Each structure stands twice: as C-alpha cells, then as structure tokens.
Amino acid sequence: MKDWFKARNVWFGAFAALTDAEAGRLAKALWQYTATGEQAELSGNEKGCFAMFLFTLQQDDAESGNLSEKRRYAGSKGGLQKVANQANATFATSDVANQANANNKNKNKNIEEDKDIKENPLKGVKEKSASLDRSFDKFWVCYPRHTAKQDAKRAFLKISPDDALLETMLTAIQRQKQTDQWSDPRYIPHPATWLNGRRWEDEASAPKQFPVKTVSAQQYTQRDYDEDDLEKRLGVNDLFRKGAS
C-alpha cells in the first residue's frame, strides 16, 4: 500500500465534467485504491474516469519499481493495455465526454458567430430582415410623404425598431398629420429625415384650427336694418296691409 499517490493536473478536465456527487465518489475511490488496494464499485460517469486514472497509477507503480503491486491489481502488460483501451473507449463514449464535446462545439460556434458579427455589423439586421421589412411597410404606408424610399429604408433598418417603438412611431405620425405644418405637403419632412432626426420624440403640436365665423351684435342690428329697408323698397308692408283690407 502507498501513503500517497501522484495526481495530474490533466485530470482536472475529467473532474470538471462530472457532477459534484460523481467527482466526490471518484476521489474517494482513488484514495481507497491507493490506501487499501481495493477498487470501489462505481456505476456512474465516474467509472470510466476511474479506469483511466487506474491505468496511470499502475504505470506510476511500475516506474517506481513496485512490480508486485502492478501484477496483483492489473495483471500482465497485456492486461494493463486492455484496461487502458477499455478505459479510453468508456470515457470517449460516456455522457460526460459527449457533453464536454458538445459544450466545446457550442463555445467555438459562439466565438465564430461573435467574430462574424463584429466583421459584418449588418448581419444581425439581415437575419431578421423579413420582420423588419414588414415593419417598414407599415411605416411607409402610414407616412404621408413617399419620397426617397431606399434612403428611408436604410434609416429604418439602422434604427431596427421593435414592436413597441414601431407603435410609438406610427402614433406620432398620426398625431403630426393633424398639425398645421403637415397640412401642406411641402413642409412634411422626407421620411429618412424624420427617422434620422428621431422626430417621433418631438413634443405634440397643436392640431389644425378651423376658424369659426361669428356675428357680432352690431352685425345683427345692421342686418335687421337692411331687411327693413329692403321691405320698404319692395313695398312688402303695403302689400300685406292691402291683403288684410
């Protein structure tokens, strides 16, 4: 039996891929083997790791001249190689190895995607172009001045509004349509100008005012006087008096 055993830093990857419970059982099994020579009964993912570590420990025993220990627990050289092959096959096909490989693939994929987005800033916009195209169509239909559509679309894609912001834009357009300024098409900003200037954030303007014609008391008096004069000139009163007689 040995008072100590050599642990390798390369084992860390295998331990890190295990759950805390599996890692604990693996550590206890290693200490049990080096202290008593007995192999613990393992059934989880740690079983494949233990077989791989066991081969390494037995190689250490062989290199230190402890050949009797090597023959007792691992057998001949061919047996050691068989254990190593089985350990490597078990570990390679275990869920732990598969999960580790999947995590590495996802990590590499994310790195490539981040790199690609940095080199192509518009790629993220293009990937959701279908949704943005529909949003732009809503904006274009609502906006009262259809000038320089491509410039407007570039400005719209640069903003890339979500549904909430699009609703805010459309509401602002409807409100601004009711102002005096927008009653004359010449004074309606180009859509690209409106977008680049974030004009949906403008304070609400007063709506168009339609003048109401009023009649003063003096005008009523003058109207009454004019009607009396007209009746006199037409002889309306005389006509009614003759009819009465």
Account of the 3D structure:
With 245 residues, the chain is an all-alpha fold. Helix content is 68%, strand content 0%. Among the domains are: 9-97, no CATH class; 127-201. It is built from 13 helices and no strands. The radius of gyration is 45 Å and the shape is rod-shaped.
Fold topology:
Blueprint (H helix, E strand, L loop, with lengths): L11 H6 L2 H17 L9 H18 L3 H7 L3 H17 L1 H25 L3 H5 L1 H14 L6 H11 L3 H14 L14 H6 L20 H18 L1 H9 L1
**Main sheet characteristics:** none
Number of helices: 13
User: Strand portion, in percent?
Assistant: under 5%
Shape: rod-shaped
Helix share of residues? 55-70%
Secondary-structure class: mainly alpha
Q: Compute the average pLDDT.
A: 76
Count all strands and give the number. 0
- pLDDT under 50 segments (min length 5)? none
Question: What integer value in Å does the Rg equal?
Answer: 45 Å
- What's the end-to-end separation, in Å? 151 Å
Give me the oligomer status: single chain
SSE pattern: HHHHHHHHHHHHH
Q: Which keywords apply here?
A:
245 residues; mainly alpha; rod-shaped
Give a brief rundown of this model.
The protein is 68% helix and 0% strand. It is mainly α and 245 residues long.
